[in-house]
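Appendix C reproduces, verbatim, an entry submitted by the partner laboratory led by Prof. M.T., so that reviewers can inspect both the input and the predicted structure.
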Amino acid sequence: MTSTPRTAFILQIHKNPDQVNKFINQLISEGHADVFIHIDKRNKPNLSGEILGNPNIRILENSINCEWGDISQVNTTILLLREVLASKEKYDFVCLRSGQDLLVRDRFKDFLLDHKGKVFMTLRDVNKDNLGLMEINWPKMTRKRYTTAHPYRIYRRIIQSLYRKGMNIFPNKNKWPDDYSLYNGSQWFSIPLEVASYIIDFIDRNEWYYKFFEHTLCPDEWFFHTLIMNSHYKTRVVNANFTFLKWGEKFSERSSPQYLTNEDIKAIEESGHYFARKFDEDIDHSIVDYFANKAKFGSSTLSEIDQDVRTLV
């Protein structure tokens, strides 16, 4: 028997159960991980019975409508973290991923074993231009994804333009402590279990923190980053989340990762990343099958995992 600790993957899913199952198989097939799944409430009746039945897979009973740009993204992650902690399992890491991700490179487990205690998330400098996302209490109708020149998308730009000119017409009236700095980045992360426990303990003891972000825009890209970077775990943060993305260039695609196809395989493999998104089997099932059959979370044997330790480049 190996003493290798298990990893908890927490997934947010809303579609394509067959594709999700292929991703889950990549994660659990070698016995190194458990998967905790939140199914969007609007899709749960159709998807619940389609997800693999396995002792290493746990579907949350509680579910919410998880919407782009909204605090519901944060709520979903909090639900998943609570479920992991309630399991009482001694996981090494908790890794947040999307149901439209896939592993695209082997041995991510080996990498985690060699970097115990590190916090992996992407971070960007916060400047005055994007600080407005947090200093504005955005109307609900503006906290949605619009892929056309929708009136609410234009309205959102007007609100931010006015803010940059010194006019905040929807101010966030929740006080932000002077000694706290704001940080942002991609929502996907890999964190030690002790950091997951710290996050839940902090928000349970500090109601002001959640309230500040409740009506901001895209709080999932700020909430956890800021909390961790204002804690003693700041020194453990590595600016990486190991994810290949292809960003759109057109107006309708500019703020979203684009669907990956067979034409992207070379770029994905050359990137050296462990994950890529986003995949959709209805767009191109062949690239889904290619990586689902190629990459696994761990190594070929448990003994190799214990012996073959990789270093961060």
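Strands lie at 7-13, 33-39, 57-59, 93-98, 102-103, 119-121, 190-192, 237-239, 243-244, 275-276. Additional entries are available on request from the coordinating office.
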